[in-house]
Write a structure and sequence with these properties.
By secondary structure, this protein is an all-alpha fold. The chain is built from three helices and no strands. The chain has one domain.
């Protein structure tokens, strides 16, 4: 009986962790979108400025990329954070499923052992 209660407690904790991570999804998606928008905006500004300064057309993309490298870094961090978040959700869902299976097995075994 104690094993069943222990597994039930793990199911509750796993469900709570899933709820917390689920609420974080929107925040991380928004951060990724904002970082991408900032990068695109600053890249466009850098490109336009370099054109206005008369820089050679073939160099403009490289020069603009150098000027907005910090924004690209923020975009990459936001993307990787979201990927890690999704991986964590999958892991938590797998754990929850495993605990539920163990719970059902223990419950079934307990019933059969007690003659129910």
């Amino acid at each position: 009986m104690q094993e069943i209660m222990s597994v039930a407690d793990k199911i509750v904790k796993c469900s709570e962790a899933l709820s917390i991570e689920g609420r974080r999804s929107e925040e991380l998606i928004k951060a990724k979108a904002e970082a991408a928008a900032a990068y695109d905006t600053h890249f466009a500004i850098a490109t336009t400025t370099l054109k206005a300064e008369g820089q050679p057309t073939t160099l403009i993309p490289k020069l603009a990329a150098g000027k907005v490298a910090d924004y690209l870094l923020k975009t990459s961090v936001a993307e990787e954070s979201l990927k890690a978040h999704y991986s964590k959700l999958v892991i938590l869902q797998s754990q929850l499923s495993a605990y539920q299976s163990i719970f059902r097995h223990l419950e079934h075994t307990s019933r059969n052992t007690n003659g129910v």
